[in-house]
Amino acid sequence: MTQLSPNFWQEKFETQQTGWDRGQASPQLMRWLADDVFNPRNGQRIAVPGCGKGWEVAALSEAGFEVTGLDYTPAAVAEAQKRLREAGLQAQVIQADVLTYEPAQPFDAVYEQTCLCALTPDAWIAYSQQLARWIRSGGRLYVMFMQVSRPGSQQELVEGPPFHCDINAMHALFDQRQWRWPKGPLTQVPHKNGLFELACVLERI
Ligand SMILES: C[S@@+](CC[C@H](N)C(=O)[O-])C[C@H]1O[C@@H](n2cnc3c(N)ncnc32)[C@H](O)[C@@H]1O
């Protein structure tokens, strides 16, 4: 499968086909912040890969974290930087490909929201290995697994983005040798595009 290019996403931004964008930070992130699930005592340095317009970068920065947003699309980087500048926030947004980016030092956490599902599935192993390298031992991966398949619709499984993050496939991708999974069912987070995400916090072993 050919990787999607920054041009593909640039056109989406330029033609306002950004149906994934909530126009505000995800309610799940805000809940995690309110409930202290995101706690600066667990570390300050957080990356937000594929950060798009930067709503979550801004929310995390406002909550006092040292945030690095990453996106390889110029329009996304420009919009996220503008948002931060206008809000007087210190977070940085770097134009980089998540498949090749190497942080100078490990992150305490990554907030992953619809970057995985924006990558073609043949890049998922490489991306999950990147996340495992980026996050220090004991650090956290806050992840929203996008659910795309609907009953009776196999078509949705192959056509993306967004690509369906089947939960069994996610267990194989973020495997028990590297990640500690929570017990119990994952929280369903409805998305305005009619789909939903499964919210999950994984701990890097
Ligand atoms: C579906 S959007 C999600 C944006 C944001 N996370 C949100 O939920 O609003 C996917 C974003 O990932 C970015 N992206 C896709 N592939 C990427 C890659 N290989 N490296 C960096 N950014 C990438 C796109 O430019 C786009 O901004």
From TrEMBL:
Classification via Pfam families: TPMT
GO BP annotations, alphabetical order: methylation
Sorted UniProt keywords: Methyltransferase, S-adenosyl-L-methionine, Transferase
GO molecular function terms listed in the Swiss-Prot or TrEMBL record: thiopurine S-methyltransferase activity
Name of the protein in question: SAM-dependent methyltransferase
